[in-house]
Amino acid sequence: MNHSSSRHRIDALYFVLGAFVFWQVVSIVVANPLIIPSPLAVAWQMVVQIQTIEMWQACASTMLRALIALFFSFILALPLSFLATFYSRIFRYPLDRISALMQTVPNVCYIIMLLFWTSRNITVILTGIFLLCPMIYRIFVEQLDTIMETWHPIWKLYPQPKRVLMVSICIPMLKSAFAAALKSASSMAFKVCVTSEILTGLASGIGRNIQMARLDLNAAGVLAWSIWLVLLAWGFEKLWSFCIRGFFTKTRNAHNCEK
């Protein structure tokens, strides 16, 4: 396990160094900082940004909007996926069709329509929910379908109330689905929120700073803010993995104690 982890870190280090060298060579060949700024110029922008209160406020604002959208997307998607699985005759078809429809609508359309009805801040959050909820719902439904197909013969021999099947049996089995949904949805949440911040013209957030850097023709600044966004999303992916392991370990231990 330790050998595998060390090997993974070494591979990641080689990748970063290779990407850095390639980026530096391309920036020298192009010789135009408006097209491809050098990695050192971008790194300097990041050093300048991290020393300002504006950078921390922008990251906090974007993070808060992304987390709110992510939280409510899970709150909606999880029960809807159970309804679609355990009461499929009533809910499966309409929920699948609505989910498919919501996934085909571009986020720009959501933003334009929502701006007629809500504030810009609420528009960013709702746009995130409209795009994330169908994706999370689909992940949960596919995993629940697999669980039902695998365990249905046993549950048929030893029937249990649906509440027990959903809460005590299926939720602990959704660990991989939770992990996949959180990793995919958290990265998507930050992307959607930043895009929405740019299009709505919010006064704070990473999106606003990317837009301001673009208007100033500061390509290094745009890339620097983009890297902060990637690092923020990556950090939350690691946090979710840690939280999921802890939550499902406690759930499994509690279930064993009850036995």
Distance between the termini: 31 Å
Helicity level: over 70%
- Oligomeric form: single chain
Q: Work out the radius of gyration.
A: 22 Å
Task: Give your account of this protein's structure.
With 259 residues, this protein is mainly α. The protein has 10 helices and no strands. It has helices at residues 2-30, 39-50, 53-86, 88-104, 107-117, 120-157, 162-173, 175-200, 206-215, 219-258. The longest helix is centred in the C-terminal third of the chain and has 40 residues, at 219-258. The chain is globular. Helix 2 (39-50) crosses helix 10 and helix 9 runs antiparallel to helix 10.
Task: Throw out a few tags for this protein.
259 residues, 10 helices
SSE arrangement:
Blueprint: H1 2-30, H2 39-50, H3 53-86, H4 88-104, H5 107-117, H6 120-157, H7 162-173, H8 175-200, H9 206-215, H10 219-258
Helix pairs in contact: 2-10, 3-4, 3-6, 3-8, 3-9, 4-6, 5-6, 5-8, 6-8, 8-9, 8-10, 9-10
Short description:
With 259 residues, the protein is an all-alpha fold. It has ten helices and no strands. The protein has helices at 2-30, 39-50, 53-86, 88-104, 107-117, 120-157, 162-173, 175-200, 206-215, 219-258.
